[in-house]
Design brief:
Elements lengths: L2 H4 L7 E3 L8 E3 L9 E4 L12 H6 L4 E4 L10 E4 L3 H12 L8 E6 L4 H14 L4 E4 L3 E4 L2 E4 L7 H13 L4 E5 L2 H5 L10 E4 L7 H4 L2 H13 L6 E5 L5 H4 L6 E6 L6 E9 L2 E6 L2 E5 L4 H16 L4 H8 L10 E4 L5 E5 L4 H14 L6 E5 L9 H11 L3 E4 L9 H9 L8 E3 L3 H11 L5 E5 L6 E4 L2 E4 L2 H12 L2
Parallel strand pairs: 2-3, 3-4, 4-5, 6-10, 6-11, 7-10, 11-12, 12-13, 13-14, 18-22, 19-20, 19-22, 20-21
Antiparallel strand pairs: 1-5, 7-8, 8-9, 14-15, 15-16, 17-18, 23-24
Length: 483
């Protein structure tokens, strides 16, 4: 593609060199540059891409988009922009033929429920006979093809390439998680959204955003930038649900389980194998558990209706959907112990899961909780997580999550700062041993919740990923103890 065509949506402050040159690829890592590449010099928290401009040109980059031109001669066209991240999104969209304009692209944002909502929308639309794509924390899907996920929202170059592949394979819809990081880092710049959906917002990622207000602002910015042709569905039962849509140009629709709204849901009854809901006055049995899942399903229903799908058809497929991997996923032992594996890694998500279990568990059923907190992440939530766990179960076991570069014992010590003497707990650093201990302590009819990692099939220790799957470990423990 000719460089000037790639840049037609950008506002350049200075251009040195010709724009009438052929570009073969877009690259943000100088090590991946090949002859004919357009290189983006990005400022990061630890690395500045401007330091690698010369290396990129030496490897064959014929053009560079940057925020300032380094000193010295450069045998490449230099384009200076105010924000290289935003420019990359705009350029990637143009380079791939504006694929988001040829899809009905719906973004889902919020603290909890993004993966479930986006994935269920993908499954529902496919269940109604349509081709669709998915961009989620668990995986990326281009029609039937499943690719491993690297980020909740990938960088614009990969993202637009996947959207283009969806268009090429006949997809009409795409559902994607929109993280607060992706908004602030301009990963969604240049995309055209048909709609946006808000789940909820609780304290999370304060290690990145600094304050809760900044975190909310990042979420809100997604809705602020939606076009007037889009729809915006928000959960007004969340105290920030109305904040999200204050300045949006999109057509606003609301959902609620408690208040008058455009789309309403009521939980009629719930059990460990599902619940009976009333959505828009029609009762249906769903294979999901918990009030938080009632919100997720209602949000899915609302988005489907806004996309033009009929009420009866939407509810019919909704009743056939199954939970996303690692989201309140139940495993039953041969002798009647119920294990629940859930991705809950924030205080609010953990409280939601524990509240759901409390609503369903029978008198006499004991609850054991295995939980940890990730390393190199928000430390303020650690004592809060521990207190929530210990206050809502019979026995809590604190263990490693993904410790990363931190000492697991130090993480657990910070968690324990939230406890009081009445809490019954133990600390076991080894996560496998912690799960086995919870299972060994259980008796038939008891409940074991393993929280924090959900769908993840790895554990990050230092800079290395080791295979570790909570579901596998629970199943092995059941077999080992024959319970």
């Amino acid at each position: 593609m000719i460089l000037k065509d790639i840049l037609k949506d950008l506002t350049a402050g200075k251009i040195v060199g010709s724009l009438d040159i052929q570009i073969s690829s877009l690259v943000l890592d100088s090590r991946s540059v090949e002859p004919g590449s357009l290189f983006f010099a990005l400022r990061g928290t630890e690395i500045d891409g401007h330091d690698f401009i010369s290396a990129a040109i030496e490897k064959g980059a014929v053009a560079v988009i940057c925020e300032h031109i380094p000193t010295g001669p450069h045998n490449a066209t230099m384009i200076v922009v105010e924000d290289s991240h935003k420019a990359m999104g705009q350029a990637a969209s143009a380079f791939n033929g504006y694929p988001s304009r040829r899809l009905k692209l719906v973004g889902v944002t919020g603290t909890n429920g993004k993966t479930t909502t986006a994935t269920l929308l993908y499954n529902l639309v496919r269940g109604l006979g349509n081709k669709a794509g998915l961009i989620s924390t668990v995986d990326y899907r281009i029609g039937d093809t499943i690719l491993p996920s690297t980020h909740t929202t990938p960088d614009p170059i990969r993202l637009n390439a996947m959207l283009a592949a969806m268009v090429e394979r006949g997809c009409e819809y795409c559902f994607m998680e929109v993280s607060s990081h992706s908004v602030m880092q301009q990963r969604i710049a240049g995309l055209h959204f048909t709609g946006g959906a808000f789940t909820n917002v609780t304290h999370e990622h304060l290690d990145y955003h600094g304050t809760f207000a900044a975190y909310i602002s990042a979420k809100k910015r997604f809705f602020d930038e939606l076009p007037s042709t889009a729809f915006a569905v928000t959960n007004i039962d969340d105290k920030n649900g109305s904040v999200m849509i204050q300045n949006t140009k999109a057509a606003v629709k609301t959902i609620s389980v408690r208040s008058p709204a455009d789309f309403r849901c009521r939980i009629v009854e719930q059990h460990f194998d599902g619940m009976l809901l009333s959505i828009d006055g029609i009762e249906l049995w769903v294979n999901f558990i918990g009030r938080f899942n009632a919100y997720n399903l209602l949000l899915v229903y609302a988005c489907a209706r806004e996309l033009g799908f009929a009420k009866e058809d939407t509810l019919r497929i909704l009743s056939s959907l199954t939970p996303v991997s690692g989201r309140f996923e139940t495993i039953r032992s041969p002798k009647g112990i119920t294990a629940i594996v859930d991705y809950a890694h924030t205080p609010d998500a953990l409280k939601n899961v524990l509240d759901t279990i409390a609503e369903i568990r029978k008198q006499g059923q004991r609850l054991f909780v295995v939980v940890g907190c990730g390393g190199d992440r928000d430390t303020a939530k650690r004592p809060v997580m521990a207190r929530i766990a210990a206050s809502n179960c019979d026995f809590a076991i604190f263990t490693s999550d993904n410790p990363r570069s931190e000492d697991p014992a130090h993480i657990i010590a910070q968690m324990r700062e939230g406890l009081d003497p009445s809490h019954r707990t133990v600390s076991i650093i080894d996560r496998r041993e912690a799960i086995c201990t919870a299972v060994a302590m259980s008796q038939p009819d008891d409940i074991v919740l393993v929280a924090g990692k959900g769908h993840e099939t790895y554990q990050i220790v230092g800079s290395e990923r080791h295979h570790f799957d909570d579901k596998e470990e629970v199943t092995k423990a059941f077999m080992s103890y024959d319970i």
